[in-house]
Amino acid sequence: MISDIASITPQAANEDTSTDNAPGYQELPHNFEAEQGLLGMLLVDNNHLERINDLLRPEHFSHPTHQRIYATIEKMIERGLEAKPTTLKDYFEKDESLEAVGGTGYLVELATEVPMLNSAMDYAQTIYDRHLRREIIRMNTDTSRDAYNYDIDKNAPDIIEEAESKLFKLSEDGATQGGFVTLRDSVLVAIDSAEKAFHADGHVTGVTTGLTDLDAKLGGFHNSDLLILAGRPSMGKTALAVNIGFNAAKAYAESGGEQGAVVGFFSLEMSSDQLAGRILADQADISGDDLRKGNLQQDDFRRFVEASQKLSQVPFYIDDTPALSIGAVRTRARRLKRQHGLGMLIIDYLQLLRGSGSKQSTENRVNEISEITRGLKAIAKELQIPVLALSQLSRAVEQREDKRPMLSDLRESGSIEQDADVVQFVYRREYYLSREEPQKNPGEDDGKFNDRYADWQRDLAECASKAECIVVKQRHGPIGSVPLYFDSSRTRFSDLEERYD
User: Fold this and answer.
1) Burial of 131 per CB tally in 10 Å (0-12, 13-18, 19+)
2) Which residues make Cβ contacts (< 8 Å) with residue 248, sequence separation at least 6?
3) Could you list the mean pLDDT of each consecutive 10-residue stretch along the chain, which spans 501 residues?
């Protein structure tokens, strides 16, 4: 018989030992027999490691001695060495924990009493299951301790969020998804995507933006993509993001889920009621300024109520919690995905997110932004959804005569450009031109001034209510400028051609 390794641990030897005689004490889940059996199988045939090492790690074993034996087997096989009791002997001759159960002879016992008819993966899954159960119990203990300890920096919702984050991390730990797939399988997926594009209305294969020209340029927003929408203040970043998000959610509701997406909107700058007010004003065709000031006629109020009733059916979810961490965004996005089937995420805006650190120096802020953009890309890949993140541009734009933004204007970190699959800028020449009204120069005659003023008025009229969405990076497609119509009174973007046909 294999030595009773349980005799050197305070935990009981058998997995299902009754605790009736020891009230108040319950051992952590474990299965020493499965651990011994698997280690023996590995020592007899090292090839078993190929089948299980995606799932199992040393810390998944319940006993420290088994952890060290498994870790040593892994290292030896990785280095092209044969892991046998005789080759492991030198590494464990002075190991006190192994000495307690018979020394290096324990390795021979593991290899000689091997359950040859059993599957290594079955044993590995049993060991991993017990590991998960132990971690769940420990997490529950930590959560209970935090709940009992009143900390001014950690309220009850924070404890819940931290517990949920740990639980999600635990559910991913050891997951066996991924790895190599055959070219044949990849080609079949590519064919399915191409067929979907062929039959799609307007060749929109991703989540529709509701803007025809932008959909034509991007093909919609695609799963696992991180898209950056950047611009200077007052360019309309939030308005465009809200329009895109609402259009996608509305298309989802109207098509029964065939088009569009369930949308989650993290509004770190505006409150949820302000954001909802914008959408209501747009859908009721009422000026946002009139809505805020209460300048409504009876007919306006009727349309406002009708629009609110329609909006109640649109799957557009708003979280206006300020100063969220990237970890909290990930946790809440996962929760929304699980509960409502999240299909697109919007962040307004990424510079208002926090990383995992607490220091706020300039250098750390650059690293923090890098952490945030990597985190957003990871969310897009994990949840298989497009993530649209808004971003501020630096003041360098204002110092140039040509105010059209460039990639170098992205604030604080080159990682934004690096991690993003698509980078697009919102630009409205009208905004800048309206603030450059010509003034008469000293000594300038009236004729020249009138000519300059007429040219300015002509230019202003030409760009009135026009905007551009400038795609400066697209990993899988062309770049270029997309013209848009902008209604400032309703903060609404729409297709330019529809307005001027």
Assistant:
1) buried
2) 207, 208, 209, 210, 221, 260, 261, 263, 343, 344
3) 54 42 69 89 87 85 88 86 85 70 76 76 90 90 87 79 74 58 68 64 75 87 91 86 90 85 89 81 72 67 75 86 83 86 89 68 70 88 91 80 79 74 88 80 80 83 85 87 84 72 45
Can you read off the two tokens belonging to residue 86? 């005789």
Q: What is the pLDDT of residue 10?
A: 40
Rounded Cα gap, residues 465 and 235, in angstroms: 12
Encoding tokens for residue 24? 């108040």
Rounded distance between C-alpha atoms, residue 491 and residue 234, angstroms: 11
Q: Buried b vs exposed e over 66-91: b needs ≥16 C-beta within 10 Å? A: bbbbbebbbebbeeeeebbbeebeeb
Q: Is the peptide bond before 123 cis (omega within 30 degrees of 0)?
A: no
Cβ contact 39:64 at 8 Å:
no
Bridge partner list, 483: 468
Helix or strand holding residue 247 (H, E)? helix 237-254
Q: How many residues does the chain have?
A: 501
> What was the pLDDT predicted at 102?
63
Residues with Cβ < 8 Å from 375, sequence gap 6 or more? 326, 327, 329, 330, 355
Residue for token pair 């919690």: 321
What's the sign of the alpha-carbon dihedral 100, 103, 107, 112? negative
pLDDT of amino acid 264:
92
Whole-angstrom distance, CA of residue 474 vs CA of residue 478: 6
pTM over cut 0.70: no
| Residue 93: partners with Cβ closer than 8 Å, 6 or more residues away | 103, 104
- Note whether 347 and 387 are within 8 A (CB): yes
Q: Which domains does the chain have, with CATH numbers?
A: 5-172 (1.10.860.10), 203-427+465-500 (3.40.50.300)
Q: What is residue 285's predicted lDDT score, i.e. its pLDDT?
A: 73
Question: Taking the mean position of all CA atoms in its chain, how far away is CA 215?
Answer: 23
Task: Give phi and psi for 345, each to the nearest 5.
Answer: -125, 135
Largest Cα–Cα distance of the chain, in whole Å? 110
Contacts of 114 (CB under 8 A, 6+ apart): 37, 40, 41, 43, 44
